[in-house]
Amino acid sequence: xxxxxxxxxxxxxxxxxxxxxxxxxxxxxxxxxxxxxxxxxxxxxxxxxxxxxxxxxxxxxxxxxxxxxxxxxxxxxxxxxxxxxxxxxxxxxxxxxxxxxxxxxxxxxxxxxxxxxxxxxxxxxxxxxxxxxxxxxxxxxxxxxxxxxxxxxxxxxxxxxxxxxxxxxxxxxxxxxxxxxxxxxxxxxxxxxxxxxxxxxxxxxxxxxxxxxxxxxxxxxxxxxxxxxxxxxxxxxxxxxxxxxxxxxxxxxxxxxxxxxxxxxxxxxxxxxxxxxxxxxxxxxxxxxxxxxxxxxxxxxxxxxxxxxxxxxxxxxxxxxxxxxxxxxxxxxxxxxxxxxxxxxxxxxxxxxxxxxxxxxxxxxxxxxxxxxxxxxxxxxxxxxxxxxxxxxxxxxxxxxxxxxxxxxxxxxxxxxxxxxxxxxxxxxxxxxxxxxxxxxxxxxxxxxxxxxxxxxxxxxxx
Length: 463
Hints:
The structure is a single chain. The protein is built from 14 helices and 18 strands. It is α+β, with helices and mostly antiparallel strands. The chain folds into three domains: about 5-90, Uridine Diphospho-n-acetylenolpyruvylglucosamine Reductase, domain 2 (2-Layer Sandwich); about 95-205 and about 430-445, Uridine Diphospho-n-acetylenolpyruvylglucosamine Reductase, domain 3; about 210-415, Vanillyl-alcohol Oxidase, Chain A, domain 3 (3-Layer(aba) Sandwich). β5 and β6 (about 105-110) form a beta hairpin. The longest helix has 14 residues, at about 430-445. The protein is globular, with a radius of gyration of 22 Å.
């Protein structure tokens, strides 16, 4: 068997200074990921710039029997991009995005961030539905689903994957689309991403106009009434409106009343994505039903909307996330959300929720591997803090928040938010029929389970 030393020599010849090893000047910076809870030390980091390089790196790592991880944006809450003593295939230099506006398509390299995609598409009045923090990696988000502002109107990010260039675990390079390797394309659309290394996405684009955004803030004494109004409002809107909520500690923004700053509050936000003249009337029924203590109304470009959450989720903090789908917001779940907000343990943490369905639920199951499309609501308890000695305190709050809502769980969870669950949790997320099909795809394209350091679907040996 080839030794690690000889593999390092081969990779040095292939990559030059883009092979980063422990002790070298850029190693400490390059190995770090968004969530600083994951302080892991890979044996080597191979910073690739082409699919051909990714292919060679995978072949060398397998020859040396080194575990393999893949880094796109490095934003996964579970830190899946990095593992101790593994070889990291780093795509972070592969961020080019090109747009064919006439065809309504974007071609994005596997290391692209959402901000790279938005910067390329919005000058053409186009966008691909994606997440809500622009420094998120496109690859990880899309392969696990991709909720965001445009999801009710147009569907998930994974629904917009038209084709993908994929380096398989054995180093071979394939292009997957509706005619070539369609089973692989199906799995890439929401199946969690451990079927190959995607080095290029071809994405369908949608037209976007300036967006009317309304945000209202409520003290916790008014939160129960506001949540009931939100549910009535959100569940009866067309797909041109997307409404979200967050319970968190109010900041120091100038538009907030002094008496709410630094206290747990409820934010309700509605984004109008349709014809501009209809927006104000469509949105106004929410603040009319539950009058906020303060409100902020503005018109934003899609790129500006996408960047709104960037400051609240910086690189280098500690994060722990639990999510669940909810059947409804009712007399049982609403008090539990309010109590969890009152108990919040960090000024950086939040409870985020949104009504789903719309275009998300209209995609036929056979078109993608994404599960639970009919879920009414998603709720996410996101703890964020900076001091390692506080880990247990904030993790405990996150778990309690989701557990206290167990009577209203719809079932399953969002695979992109799985963090430290046992292996059979992935089976629970997808359900046995869907998981069985994913496992067959895994058996075909990665039978040795080389790509396993994420929310892993294992080969179908038990079936």
